[in-house]
Write a structure and sequence with these properties.
Elements: H1 2-14, H2 16-21, H3 29-45, H4 50-57, H5 61-74, H6 80-110, H7 122-131, H8 135-141, H9 149-166, H10 171-186, H11 206-218, H12 230-254, H13 262-295
Helix pairs in contact: 1-3, 1-5, 1-6, 3-4, 5-6, 6-7, 6-8, 6-9, 7-10, 8-9, 9-10, 9-12, 10-11, 11-12, 12-13
């Protein structure tokens, strides 16, 4: 009971990522997300309360404490401390991610993707500080216990959420949003130091070169085809990194005790399949483009 409650809380906090993995149509994500969080409130408190609903969605400290107390009270003694510690860390990482997503969304409101990128504005520098916070996520990603496969799966899902929130950000802010995540997941070098100087604009091509290197380390290098546009090469590198995440999700999900945590296994496998599909689509599009260029 306690473990399932922790997964319900995780699903509430992750929202659309979880709904997508469940196969819920995008136009029903919001209602499905709301229902999960309502169920969470009812389970923790015995009845639904709107104020607590808002607090638990905001991942507020007091309601997280109530959740952990409920997990402790309902989880079998043999796994109680481990389960409480796991979802305490998940809650912290989810809260960190929520703040990062809000910062990213604020930047995207006014960001013009077609404008020439320069040094970060004051608002973007504020966002960069929030986006670069990753200590809670890193606690999940760097699990000391090699048997803690569920911890690693949850960490990878939250890390993938960081990748998703980086879409549409200025390239310099992408470094802040995902640099630490990619270093932890793929053991790659941190982003170049000049990319993390808010008063200096990185040299053109820095983001593509970095992302291409990470994709190669993830096992899916982007082809060096001169006929491909800059955007196509970036898409191949991005989806290559995503496929690297898929490999790691499948590896960890395959080691899960499926009978004990079937929902987590299904979600991880579904997310992996989506990432693999995105990579396959990107490769197909670029092959068509390359063949047209060759036929000219």
């Amino acid at each position: 009971m306690g473990y399932k409650l922790g997964l319900l809380a995780t699903a509430c906090w992750m929202g659309g990522v979880w709904s997508d993995a469940e196969g819920v149509p995008p136009d029903r994500w919001a209602s499905r997300d709301e229902q999960r969080c309502r169920d969470l409130v009812t389970t923790v408190y015995g009845r639904f309360d709107q104020a607590r609903y808002q607090q638990i969605r905001e991942n507020e400290e007091r309601t997280v404490g109530d959740l952990l107390a409920k997990i402790r009270a309902t989880e079998p003694a043999a796994s109680r401390e481990r389960t409480v510690a796991l979802f305490r860390d998940v809650a912290a990482a989810a809260h960190e991610g929520m703040l990062a997503r809000r910062a990213a969304d604020r930047v995207k409101i006014d960001y013009d993707a077609d404008a020439v990128e320069a040094k970060l504005t004051d608002d973007q520098r504020t966002a960069a500080k929030t986006l670069s916070e990753h200590r809670a996520l890193e606690r999940l990603l760097v699990a000391p216990d090699p048997t803690a496969t569920d911890r690693r799966v949850l960490a990878l899902l939250l890390a993938m959420d960081r990748m998703e929130m980086a879409r549409g950000l200025p390239k310099q802010l992408k470094f802040y949003a995902v640099g630490h995540v990619l270093t932890a997941v793929f053991s790659v070098a941190p982003p170049p130091s000049d990319a993390l100087k808010p008063t200096v604009s990185p040299r053109p091509g820095t983001w593509l070169a970095y992302l291409t290197d990470v994709a190669g380390r993830a096992g899916y290098p982007a082809p060096e085809n001169p006929s491909l546009t800059h955007k196509m090469r970036e898409t191949l590198a991005w989806t290559g990194v995503g496929h690297g995440f898929a490999d790691r999700l499948r590896q960890q999900a395959g080691a899960l005790p499926v009978a004990a945590v079937p929902e987590l296994s299904r979600v991880a496998t579904s997310v992996a399949a989506r990432l693999e599909s995105e990579r396959a689509t990107a490769e197909a599009v670029t092959k068509v483009h390359a063949s047209k260029e060759t036929g000219k």
